[in-house]
Specification:
The chain has 293 residues and is α/β, with parallel strands linked by helices. It has 9 helices and 10 strands. The protein is elongated, with a radius of gyration of 22 Å.
Length: 293
Amino acid sequence: MKYLVSVDFSDITNLVIRSAKVFATKLNADLELLHVIAPFTYLPYPEGLSIDIVDMDIIQKAEENAKNLALEKLSALAEYLKPVNTTYKVIVDTPFAEIISKEAEDNNMDGIFLGGHSKNLVEKILVGSTTEDVVKNSKASSIVIKSKEIEKLDNLLIAYDFTSICDKMLDFIFDTFKSLKPHITLLHIDKGISIEISKDLSQTIEQSVNEAKLKKLEDIKKRFSQVYSFSYEIINDKNVAGVLENFASKINPDIVFIASKRPKLLERIFGGVEALRILRHISYPLYIFKVEA
């Protein structure tokens, strides 16, 4: 296993690095640290101002100095991450999200560690979010670290909605965490059936669906219980993001797992809006599982 760690040297970096170290140490994974710098020639200049050869030489030297400084910092982080096998790289290019995603895809990374910065609405509109762009557009899975870091891998929370991508996520978790044997809680948030049919028919269909869900959950429990301490919960509510956040606060998981069906769209596990709401507001480490469409 190999994970890319996006490093921007902001105040979230320490949490991301410590989380990646715990994760990689526990699961015997390799890491690549990546810092992306915008080319200095992209900096805005007053209209009508020309850049002569001397100016360009100064800009290139400043860019090279910034790159060398970043490499020194990454080297220190790699030293801290020992004994985890760690490489590091600085890329001078934009846009950041595309560069990070391409690096992960070109090198067949199992996922990308990202820092989730708290931004208000105005900042999101004006600046956007590199983390959100990577999560939405990359084919690789993402592990987003916000106010809480990964300190251990003893307690996992899985959000499950009976889709095929969630079943693939279960396979990944089952195989990946065998050596650690954490407690696993599977949560299904049932939003009910919202189709316009007669009340009696609606109740009949819902009962049939619920019976099928319970059978599937019992089958999952039987499988996981052979290796793991496993339990599941069903909560009936339409406020999926709010329920997931509240449930997580009760069991205090080390990581929350959700799934993304398409490489360019967080879809259907919570609906695009709900998924982004979780990404923006949940404080727990969030593993957004993906496989290529």
